[in-house]
Amino acid sequence: MTSFSLVLTPNDVNSCVNMFRQHTETLCPKCGINKTVTVKNTLRLTMAVIDIDFGAFIRRPMDWPFDYETPQFVLNNRFKFTLKMKSPTNEQEVIICHLHEGNKYQSNIDVQLDAGSSVVFSCQQTCSIHLTGYYLN
Predict the structure, then answer these.
(1) Which of 25, 41, 97, 129 gets the most CB atoms within 10 Å of its CB?
(2) Residue 118 is part of a domain; what is its CATH number?
(3) A Pfam family in this protein (predicted)?
């Protein structure tokens, strides 16, 4: 077995100045994740983790007055980070997991992607999500 690791990053972390409460239920075109991945070998994804060090949990104006982050500001955010997946030919999205439920920053998942398939991962919220798994030989 060969391990697999992929970091999904937001489109442009500096262009969106909306706070989370201003985002709607649709993907934010300025800061959400929307990445297409083509699978070369059959792959099983086993875990999704929010990259806490990425520091983009809450959108801030460009003139944010503080040079530091307060952990309480992040931990008290009740917004869910919902990681979704769909094939490019199908409009039906499948929810892989919800992250940041009760300060849970990781989630065990069980998703198998067949060789030659292509999938689109999306998350409306601004964050960086690390996917891990292994290739099936």
Answers:
(1) 129
(2) 2.60.120.340
(3) NPL
Question: Running DSSP on this structure, what letter comes out for residue 49?
Answer: E
Cβ neighbors of 106 (< 8 A, separation 6 or more) are: 47, 48, 49, 50, 99
Question: Within 13 Å, how many C-alpha atoms sit on residue 60's CB side?
Answer: 14
Residues paired with 111 in a beta bridge: 45
Q: How many domains does the chain have?
A: 1
- pTM attached to this predicted model: 0.70
Sheet with 129-135, side-by-side order of all strands: 2-8, 129-135, 43-50, 106-113
Pick from 68, 45, 50: nearest CA to 126: 50
The residue range of the domain holding 45 is: 2-62+70-135
